[in-house]
Specification:
By secondary structure, the chain is mostly beta strands. The chain is about 0% helix and about 70% strand. Strands 1-2-3-4-5-6-7-8-9-10-11-12-13 form a 13-stranded antiparallel beta sheet, with no helix packed on it.
Amino acid sequence: SILQYNSRKFYLGTTLLINQFSTPILKKPNTYNQFEFKGNQNIVGSIYSSYLWQNLNFFGEFARSKSGGSGIYGGVIASLTPEIDLSITWRRYDKNFHSFYGNPFGENSRGINENGIYWGVKIRPIKKWEIAAYYDHFHFPWLKFGVNAPSSGYEYLGKVTFKASRNKQFYIQFREESKGKTINIDDSNLEQMEDATKKNVILNADYELGNLDLKTRIQGSFYQLGNQQSSGIAFIQ
């Protein structure tokens, strides 16, 4: 069910979703998944809102599931000048928050067991040029599959785009992501946490040649986990 109030600069709404299953869901017990949903019924309700003030758009949502876990997401999008846009968001999804149909922003594929804050900026310094960047720092308060301890990580990206014309666009992009992963120590039964870091750089061109739409891309990647490293390069036409 949905109930929503709207005005020119403000809206406020609430939702309630009930899931009923004919057969109870029971996952195989494990340390990391002991707070996952189990049973044959889930109820999740939320309150959400948005407010527009001058060049600032504030928004947020609070949700709570039958388990007692909650999910919170909020932030602001700002048009600081005609050339600069800024966004800041914050999120917190409890380890026992259950929402089957939600698609919240986050590092995980689901809104569960995650806290984080995100900054993004887009700058148009001169005509035909655009610079975009973001930084996201996240924390997982409980264990995850393949990660046997609470962990943290980050991700950032920088991208410079040149729009030569309506049919020609070029960009260069660099991205790095790092988060914890559990690995086994050689010749022992012990485990330790290491940072798994992925980096990639992309050179991309979209253009026309006669009646053909073409895309050329060169991409290099690097991955490191403890003492293990790998790298590669791809060319796509």
